[in-house]
Amino acid sequence: MTTLSDLEIFDRPDFLARLGDDEELLREVVELFLEDAPQQLESIARAVAAGNAADIAPSAHQLKGAAANISARRAAEAASRLETAAKSGDSIVAGQEFAKLKNEMQQLLVHLKA
Amino acid sequence: MNVLVAEDDLVSRHMLTKVISGWGYEVSAAADGLEAWEMLRKPGAPSLVILDWSMPGLEGIEVCRRVRELPDRSPYIILLTSRDRQTDIVEGLRTGADDYLTKPYDREELQARLNVGARIIRLQSALSRQLFEIDDTLHRIQNSFLLGECPDGLEGFQVAAAMFPSETVAGDFYDFFRHHKRCFDVVVGDVMGKGTKAALFGAATTTRILRSMNEMMSELDSAPQPQPEAILDRVNRKMTPQLAEVGSFVTLCFARFDLDAALCTFVDAGHVKTIHYRADLERAGFLEGQNLPVGFSETEDYRQQRVQLHEGDIFLFYSDGLSELRDPQGQMFGAERLASLVEAGRLDSVDGLIARIRQASVQFAGSSAFNDDLTCVAVKIAPQAIHDLRDELQVRSDPLNLGEIRRFVRSFCQRLQGPALDEREVFFLELATHEAVVVAMRTAYAGDPTKPIIIRARSTANTIVLQVVDEGIALDLERLPKPGSDCTSENALGVYIMGQAMDQVTYEKDEQGRNCMTLVKRVG
Fold first, then answer.
1. Cα separation of B241 and B296, whole Å?
2. Do A18 and B106 touch (CB under 8 A)?
3. The pTM is what?
4. Burial of B474 (0-12, 13-18, 19+ CB in 10 A)
């Protein structure tokens, strides 16, 4: 199994290529992500706190897509693991996976702001 | 070209919008399924759609399903799905998506797939432009070639025609051919099938009729007009192979109205039965023949029938679109109902009668959007239209034709206006004509049964004139012995009978040098 640390936090060249090498657009999109992602993480946090595994999966899925979209590989993988755990209904594992996701997201946001 | 991006994720929506506009598309965006649906259902909606599968409210696939139920709208839809939900792709395509992309999308793949969509949209609109053109052409064909103009300059007739077209051209046609002011032909027909084929064959039929008449008139060398049955024989022979090739046929009624002879001569080629309102009986009946539609058999022998015209008579030709019109319960309009309408509208003008029929059919069907063309042609014989009758019969000089000649004289007498002749008078006219024909057969043609004999009948207010014309050896009337002498000449007896039965008998050459026996009877 791939460990998270094998993956890149942010695959900038891949993302830039998908934006047609438009640096300005990259900055714009990253800024939007910086505004939007914390809210998405917040809604997952609420679902985890409520202990409702069924509510966790859709929000995790959404964040997974958003992270993958900007080639944020580690966060996307972490969100994907949380989604899987939430679907299996194991709220303990889900809690652990959420903690990892939160950590990855913090690193990503720091990386992107840099 | 307009692209709609429907994606709930803000970042990815923004990215897609920017990237796709960078390729020269005009892009609008929707943040959820419901918004996308509201945009797509409107006229002028984008023709290319990038639709995310999982969105709050309405899922992409539901938007897709709803869009596909819209009439006259078919945007090209690319469904966006996560890489781990590839099994959904089949469902997405079945629901009506044209293509799919997995997220996160690959830039070049997205561009290539969008371009495919744009190409298909362009092809579609080119195709629908062409279809529109074809449809437009068909309606033009219908208006200019399938629907003839009511003939001008007729005397003693009122004629009106109308077609209430269905949405698709159904191949009904009518046309008129004017011979002179007191004689014209009408043809009303229906080509099996709809659309281009029906319209073109409808136009071809009227053209073929006209061409056949033209050919026959030049062949006959300006002798009398070609008869309806002979015209149809020729039209059928020419058109059957063409119609058979496309598996179609044409039903029609061809009728000639001749006020000089007070006759309607018609051929019914498998068409709906024509309605004939008889003013003398104050009742509507049907005219119906036994012939097959044009295009069934090359060897079909078309037979014409004759009906007498009376002042105030009405003829209504129509197509099955009218008689087979259905009400919301599925009941048929029917020819009987049409006949009652003609009876009820016997005092209407012909235009008034057609308006009455249209109103009744719309009321019956509960709508004016008909499934089939509704065609009708009304012909009315005007008051004082029939006077000074003329009729003509051409036969071979075979004694077997004597019966037909007597029937011709009798039928002519029956058509005279004013007080009817008594049986004795009719008998004498028959007898005198019979004798004149026998003289021509026996003497002028010396018994040869293959020579032409023409019998002409005409009437004025107080005379009936019958002429027998032959091209044989002239008879010397002066040198015929008088009856009662010891001579037993059959000719002498015949001439004597003619003299007794008629008021005046003359025998001379006509302008063309033919022998012409003229019998005159004063009446009234």
1. 9
2. yes
3. 0.68
4. middle
Please say whether the beta carbons of B259 and B381 come within 8 A.
Answer: yes
Cβ of residue A21 closer than 8 Å to a chain B Cβ: no
Which chain B residues touch A11 with a CB distance below 8 Å?
none
Model confidence at B478, in pLDDT bands (50, 70, 90)?
low
The minimal CB distance from A19 to the residues B8, B9, B19 is found for B19
Q: How far apart are alpha carbons B306 and B407 in whole angstroms? A: 13
Q: How many whole angstroms separate alpha carbon B129 and alpha carbon B188?
A: 33
In Å, how far from its chain's centre is CA A79? 5
Contacts of B309 (CB under 8 A, 6+ apart): B257, B259, B262, B263, B264, B381, B385, B386, B415
CA distance B9 to B103: 12
Out of A19, A20, A65, closest to residue B9 by CB: A65
Cβ contact, residue pair A66, B106, below 8 Å = no
Distance CA A85, CA B25 (A): 41
Taking an 8 Å cut-off on Cβ atoms, the answer to whether A62 and B9 are in contact is yes
Query: Region A55-75: what's the mean pLDDT?
Result: 91
B12 contact A CB<8A: yes
Report ipTM for this prediction: 0.89
Residue B485 has pLDDT above 60, yes or no: no
**For residues B162 and B233, is the Cβ–Cβ distance under 8 A?**
no
Torsion angle, alpha carbons of B239, B241, B245, B247, to 10: 60
Which residues 24-63 on chain A approach chain B with CB closer than 8 angstroms?
A: 25, 28-29, 32-33, 36, 58, 61-62
**What is the rounded distance in angstroms from the CA atom of residue B423 to the CA atom of residue B414?**
10
The pLDDT tens digits for B280-322 are: 999 999 999 999 999 999 999 999 999 999 999 999 999 999 9
**Taking the CA of residue A54 as centre, how many other CA atoms within 13 Å lie in the half-sphere pointing to its CB?**
0
